[in-house]
Amino acid sequence: MNKAKKTGDQLAQVRFLGILQTLKEQRSVTVTELSEKFQTSEATIRRDLNWLDQQGKLNKVHGGALALENVFETEEPNMTVKVSLNAEAKQKIGQYAAQLVVDDDFVFIDAGTTTWQLVESLKTTSASFVTNAVAHAQRLANQGLEVAVLGGQLKPVTEALIGTNALRNLQHYNFTKVFLGMNGISKAQGYTTPDLEEAAIKQTAIDLSQDAYILADHSKFAKVTAVKVADLGRACVITDALDDSSYLDQTIVHIASSAEFESKRNNQ
Questions:
Q1: How many domains is the chain built from?
Q2: In terms of residue numbers, what domain contains 126?
Q3: Is residue 89 assigned to a domain?
Q4: Closest CA to 17 of 90, 64, 106, 78
Q5: Are residues 55 and 141 in the same domain?
Q6: Which pLDDT tens digit goes with each residue over 81-98?
């Protein structure tokens, strides 16, 4: 695959995910709206909608598309695509989560683009860290923080270390806090992720922690992927917005853009 085609495919993936996100929020959208949003031609948008309709991701109608009633995702975008999605929201979530880390903590940080923003936002601290993400470990070390890396098999799509060795290494620890990324958050199915081995790491980290936090932007709500990690009550959620307040009946949700966060930041 040449470089131009690879770039084109990545841009298409960004549009696909953006279209589905827009439908999740609005339930319907027109070709004209999407053309303006992504600054591309209406012909390109129509091709995108045709493809997504064929994949069972949406219902294409004349002049636009309608959302499906239930969103179930079987594929996971790579890190290049993920990093461009809801970037501002992820930054707010990471900044909020960083305020929760204190000097005596022993912390596990999962791989992912939202947990990366937590790593980026950490201040000087005597807390210790464990991670299954090579990039996260390098960044933590460059910040002068104490960090250990789980050994294991590298999953290229998420850049996470997974597998039997990673799980065995993880089970040696007990954490005061864990921070995990998640692909889906649903009232019925709980926290979900597409990969069985990544789910095992997340499940075990929650079991080994005093306090577990799921870092997930608003697009992850009402979404289900293949493997269940835990029920909602097993962890708190840190997000940028919550439209459905009934989630509060099952778990604690912190809103990163709330006055609580602003007060924390102003008191630093």
A1: 2
A2: 79-266
A3: yes
A4: 78
A5: no
A6: 666 567 899 999 999 999
